[in-house]
Amino acid sequence: MNKNIQRENTQSTKIFDHRSLANDYRTLVPLLKKGMRVLDVGCGTGAITKDIANAIGPEGSITGIDNTKSFIESGQSTYATVSNMQLLHADIFKFEPEDRFDLIVSARVLQWLSNPLEALLKMKTLLRPDGILSILDYNHTKIEWAPAIPHSMRQFYDTFLKWRSNAGMDNEIADHLPELMATAGFHSIEVFNSDEYYDRSRTDFQAKTGIWSKVAGSSQMVEEGYLDDDLRLLAIREYDAWVEREAVSMTMKLKEVRGVN
Ligand SMILES: C[S@@+](CC[C@H](N)C(=O)[O-])C[C@H]1O[C@@H](n2cnc3c(N)ncnc32)[C@H](O)[C@@H]1O
For the segment 160-191, what is each residue's pLDDT rounded down to a tens digit? Predict the structure, then answer.
């Protein structure tokens, strides 16, 4: 693995490790019942997966899959004692388990796929009849910062959305999910607001708002000709200063969309 990817994976591991069911997938909590058999698609390092494992109890079981090996290895080592959870290095499009699941969850994953409908169709084949699919994802075009972020980071962010869109990713996937799920054949579709709101009263305010400096830390968009490296470095400097001195809040717009098989 090249050094850039390794560094970015290490940073992502830290971000994913701090996630929890209560803070980062809160609308799912009422759905979880003891004894359920659950699949978590794109589980990262398994932090949310482990909380779901606790909620469904020892009579339930959860499988987390992720196609990034280092995330799965990190989770396997951190949560080795969680006996009703298994973490597997697997790609959703190639995953062929023996049994069907009562519930499939997938948080912040479809935003990265150029073929989200195919992913929903694949997940549908892994659900038992009447099983439930829950997808949690962003609308990146609706993010709110107060006050406005520096112009350099605004330019970086707009370029990031263009880069994503050119790569086939849907920046507004949260708002397209109900229609996509209906197209995939799910019924009884429900939508829950799951916005992530961060203000200075939170101890993790700097870590959460600082995510955009980390995204700008990657030189991939420079290498692909989308961005001048000076602008990227300026965006990091000015945004870090904004987080430190001026930032009041950041709201990332998310929805949980649920459907029945
Ligand atoms: C932003 S992370 C979300 C991690 C975790 N669900 C959370 O909410 O913290 C997205 C994850 O999806 C995984 N992923 C992307 N495409 C995938 C695929 N085709 N099959 C399995 N996992 C995938 C990535 O490796 C990454 O760990």
Answer: 999 999 999 999 999 999 999 999 999 999 99
In this structure, of 30-44, 157-171, 184-198, 199-213, the range with the lowest mean pLDDT score is: 199-213
Closest residue to atom 11 of ligand 1, CA basis: 42
Question: Is the separation of the CB atoms in 31 and 102 below 8 Å?
Answer: no
Tell me how far apart the alpha carbons of residues 170 and 59 are, in angstroms, rounded to a whole number.
38
Instruction: Determine the pLDDT at residue 1.
Output: 53
- Is residue 150 reached through a cis peptide bond, with omega within 30 degrees of 0 on the bond before it? no
Residue 143 CB coordination number (10 Å): 18
Cα torsion angle, 180, 194, 242, 4, sign? negative
Residue with tokens 């400097």: 237
Q: Is pLDDT at 36 greater than 60 in this prediction?
A: yes
Host H or E run for residue 252: strand 249-252
Q: Whole-prediction pTM value?
A: 0.94
Q: Which protein residue's CA is at the shortest distance from atom 24 of ligand 1?
A: 42
For residue 161, give the amino acid letter: L
Q: How far is the CA of 246 from the centre of ligand 1 (A)?
A: 32
| Coil/strand/helix, residue 44 | coil
